[in-house]
Design a protein that fits this description.
Blueprint: E1 3-4, H1 21-27, E2 32-33, H2 36-51, E3 56-61, H3 88-96, E4 102-107, H4 115-120, E5 123-126, H5 134-142, E6 197-199, E7 203-205, E8 208-209, E9 215-223, E10 229-239, E11 250-259, E12 264-271, H6 273-276, E13 278-279, E14 285-286, E15 290-299, E16 302-310
Parallel strand pairs: 3-4, 4-5, 8-16
Antiparallel strand pairs: 1-2, 6-9, 7-9, 9-12, 10-11, 10-15, 13-14, 15-16
Helix pairs in contact: 2-3
């Protein structure tokens, strides 16, 4: 799907000197979608190509024009909705209708809202803005030469109506919608690979500490698949008793480990004032007595928890 600009360099009488194509796109003030009729011809070409192929790889998303900072009335960059620009979703659906196995590759600067596509596309590869070796990186992942182990640094919304969407929301945020879910399409910290991992129930030792004390959280992670792979083990904390409302969870640590098939490893995290304190009502960091939930897992929505008691001195 093509995004074009008209008269991209006619606003400035001075020629563009140096720079890159990306810089040229960023500087273009006016962004004009491609002609729908021309797009439909391209979609028909893509469908014909997919029918003659074993696997279809469809690359969609944004570029430097449709996802950029809006710093002036004549240089807009924000959009009122998060769905794929133009007829890109129509392209994906048309290729899916061929019945050929389809991989969706996302190139974007912000998460798109693709709930319907996520339900029917067999595989989705998030690339964000890949660099000069984009093709090589994508090919190595799709052919299995590299086993991906990345995790999402943001939550993917189902639609613009969910915004703002944070994994570390306050307890009373997002009470619900009449006809929709409050859960993200893909949660913070989510990411799959060509193998799978299982987590034991975490433990904390000691289970009771003073405000300035320290404890150790441990969890056993096992590669339950048939390939070696990387897993990012994530530690979250919830302060259940505090003078100010605290988020339902906060990322406080992570470890990236590599495990062979069947291999298991115990991962430990240290818990102390650095992880348990927050800025109190007087804006000073404090560890308040009370119960904490210590959560460990492979994403913000795939965690197991254990309690930790902080007792007053």
């Amino acid at each position: 799907m093509r995004i074009t600009e008209d008269s991209a360099f006619t606003r400035d009488p001075q020629p563009l000197v140096g720079g890159t194509r990306s810089q040229a796109r960023w500087s273009a003030d006016r962004v004009v979608p491609a002609d729908p009729a021309a797009n439909r011809r391209r979609i028909a070409e893509a469908v014909a190509l997919a029918r003659d192929s074993d696997v279809a790889v469809v690359v969609v998303g944004d570029n430097e024009q449709t996802a950029r900072e809006a710093y002036a009335e004549n240089h807009l960059g924000d959009r009122a909705e998060l769905r794929l620009v133009g007829q890109q979703e129509e392209l994906v659906r048309a290729v899916l209708d061929t019945g050929k196995p389809t991989v969706l590759v996302l190139i974007n600067g912000r998460p798109p809202a693709i709930p319907e596509l996520a339900e029917c596309v067999p595989a989705i590869l998030e690339g964000w803005y890949l660099g000069r070796e984009s093709g090589t990186a994508v090919a190595e992942v799709l052919f299995g030469d590299v086993n991906p182990g990345g995790k999402l640094p943001v939550s993917f919304p189902r639609g613009v109506g969910q915004l703002p969407l944070f994994y570390n929301r306050k307890p009373t945020a997002m009470r619900g919608y009449l006809f929709g879910s409050t859960r993200p399409l893909f949660p913070f910290g989510h990411g799959l690979s060509y193998t799978t991992f299982s987590y034991s129930a975490p433990t904390v030792s000691p289970a009771r500490i003073p405000p300035d004390g320290r404890a150790t959280a441990s969890v056993e992670v096992t590669n339950t698949g048939t390939r070696a792979g990387d897993e990012v083990v994530q530690l979250y904390i919830r302060d259940e008793v505090s003078r100010a409302t605290r988020p339902v969870m906060e990322l406080k640590g992570f470890r990236r480990i590599t495990l062979a098939p069947g291999e298991r490893r115990t991962v430990t995290f240290e818990l102390g004032p650095e992880q348990l304190s927050y800025h109190g009502p007087d804006m000073k960091r404090v560890v308040e007595p009370g119960r904490f939930q210590v959560m460990v897992g492979g994403s913000s929505e795939a965690v197991k928890s254990v309690g930790l008691e902080v007792v007053g001195q």
